[in-house]
Amino acid sequence: MSTAKKPSKDDSCHIPDGQSLYARRQKCIRNMYVAINKSAEAGKRRAKLQMDYRIELARKTAKLRDAGTAAALVTVMAKGDPDVAKLEYDMEVATVEEEQYSERINAYKADANLTEALIQREWGKSK
Hints:
Helix content is 80%, strand content 0%. The chain contains three helices and no strands. The protein has helices spanning 18-66, 71-80, 82-123. Helix 1 runs antiparallel to helix 3. The protein starts with 17 loop residues before the first helix and ends with a helix.
């Protein structure tokens, strides 16, 4: 009985063919455009949340001023209001989400460029 291991598919050196490289590049590009669109949506969401935050902060500040709160405390107290703080939190989360999409775009772009370089190396003009 032989104890020699039969070569499996994974034991061979895998070199992607031109079609799989091209498909990979196309997938990266599609994902990049999806991320661009989602980044735009996230930016609009962040801008809307920022507008809501500023409006609510102004309302709370005016209300505190009208109530006779000391001028030095008005902004701090307005920002500490649960409604205002929640809006600020939502705005910060939207900012992070927008930055995440930006990073994804860069990653997809880098992967597409790397794949393009592999395609050129494997299937480009011979010298």
